[in-house]
Amino acid sequence: MTKKVKMDARVFGSRVFMTLWLAFAWTLLWGSFELGTIVAGLGVAVIIMTVLPLPRVPVEGLLRPISTAWLIIMVGYYLVRSSVVVAWQSVRPAAPPEPAVLRAPMRLKSDFTLALAVNSLNLMPGGIVVRVDPVARYVYIHVLDAGTDKAVESFYRQTGHVERLFQRAFERPEDWHPNPGHYTAPADSGPQKAGPRNPGSAAGQEVSR
After folding, report:
1. Neighbours of 153 (CB within 10 A)
2. In sequence order, what are the beta bridge partners of 102?
3. Cβ(67)–Cβ(165) under 8 Å?
4. For all residues of the chain together, what is the average pLDDT?
5. Fewer CB in 10 Å around end: N or C, the chain?
6. In terms of DSSP H, where are the helices of the chain?
7. Contact call for residues 146 and 154 (beta carbons, < 8 A)
8. Phi/psi of residue 6, each to 5°?
9. How open is the CA angle 203-208-209, to the nearest 5 degrees?
10. In this prediction, what percent of the chain has a pLDDT beyond 90?
11. What is the pLDDT of residues 88-127, one digit of tens each?
């Protein structure tokens, strides 16, 4: 017997949002925002959500529109700033920057939110996430410039700010309601030692150069 899933406001809201998003994608594919196209898109979206449902993802947090808008603005700012920094490093009359793999905490409760944060970090030039520890909530990032304490501290400030932006947008403590269906990732089998857990210690967070 199939277990009946409780339809609370958060789950209902997420389904409505996905239905509207699918309808929007349909209108974009047709290249027309006429009434008939929109109605057809809504019909197709309802059929997809009913006949071909995606695996259920526990809805535990709450999206904050203003914080989400600020998150998008700041990520866009970091994208532009990182692009300018990398461009300057490639043409400046100096020795090439010294790269390193650094470990940074990313204490986001939801694996979905963690994936969004990792993708945002990967979009920023000058660094790419090479490994994620889903249990200890650490990300390992290959950084293009880690040759000075100033560059390393700047990396941790930016990564920490991105973490806080995602927390305020999706995982505020007052909005968090744990779901028994929450997926727990298996223990990480990778290297366990990468310096102390104090994120303020730049030297301690460095893994390899």
Report:
1. 12
2. 141, 206
3. yes
4. 80
5. N
6. 9-30, 35-51, 65-91, 111-123, 149-170, 202-205
7. no
8. -70, 130
9. 95
10. 33
11. 888 888 888 889 999 999 989 888 888 889 999 998 888 9
Q: φ, ψ for residue 173 (rounded to 5)? A: -55, -40
CB 153 within 8 A of CB 123: no
Q: How far apart are CA 107 and CA 155, in angstroms?
A: 17
Is the CA virtual torsion 44, 49, 55, 58 positive or negative? Answer: positive
Q: Residue 1 CB: number of other CB atoms within 10 A?
A: 3
Q: What strands, in cross-sheet order, belong to the sheet with 127-133?
A: 127-133, 138-143, 100-105, 206-208
Q: Which two tokens stand for residue 53?
A: 């449902």
Burial status of residue 202 (CB atoms within 10 A of its CB: 0-12, 13-18, 19 or more): buried
Question: Per residue in 182-208, pLDDT tens?
Answer: 655 555 554 444 443 444 444 444 454
Q: Which residues contact 189 (CB under 8 A, 6 or more apart)?
A: none
Q: Find the largest Cα–Cα distance for the chain.
A: 70
> What is the C-alpha to C-alpha distance for residues 153 and 157, in angstroms, rounded to an integer?
6
